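Quick one: structure tokens for this chain, please?
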Amino acid sequence: MTNDIHRIHAIIHGIVQGVGFRYHTQVMAQRLGAVGWVRNLPDGTVEVVAEGSKKTLEQLADFLQHGPPHAVVRKVDLRWSEPTLEYDQFTVKR
């Protein structure tokens, strides 16, 4: 049921590139059962789009607040929206 599936879009600011942020986000998302993608943006931020249960996405959003050990997250812009159901796995976009 799509009622049980939600979507988040997040932009993570700080020292978040070159520190394994995309890899660790992918591992965490896969562990939680989320689908979608993560990518670096030219301005030094990281963008995440994920779909899954509300609980899954809340846990992923908590992870994004701090990221992996060498990341320094300064701010996370996060919004919830309707899912598109277009993903079947969580990938790193390049």
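The radius of gyration is 12 Å.
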